[in-house]
Amino acid sequence: MADEKKKKPEPERPLVEPEMPDEVADGAYANVAQIVFSPAEFVFDFGRAVPGRKGFKIISRIITTPLHAKQFLLTLSENVSRFEDQFGEIKIPQRPEPAGPEGFRQ
Fold first, then answer.
1. Which tens digits make up the pLDDT trace of 26-55?
2. Is 4 part of any domain?
3. Would 1 be classed as within a structural domain?
4. Contacting residues for 71 by C-beta, under 8 A, at least 6 apart
5. Separation CA 34–CA 66 (nearest Å)
6. Tens digit of pLDDT for each residue in 6-20?
7. Which residues form the domain of 39?
8. Is 43 exposed, middle or buried (0-12, 13-18, 19+ CB in 10 A)?
């Protein structure tokens, strides 16, 4: 038999190369999330609460389909598991919920 040259497998590439504008690349800090939904969409509002102030300021809103919301849930769950495998369990404090809208709710 003739020598067969084995090809190195090419690294996986995303199906679509993301494009990130400079104003998005810096990111935004959020410590509050609010989610509402209808039969057609999920709306994720991310915000920032500041101690001593009532309420919070919404800094980003993402609107998506129920299918994409479910895919996001599964992807986030997998990544939290991988994070905990690498860095240890993320502990959620067992204390009463703060007064007001501060924090992410389960």
1. 999 999 999 999 999 999 999 999 988 888
2. no
3. no
4. none
5. 16
6. 666 666 766 888 899
7. 29-87
8. middle
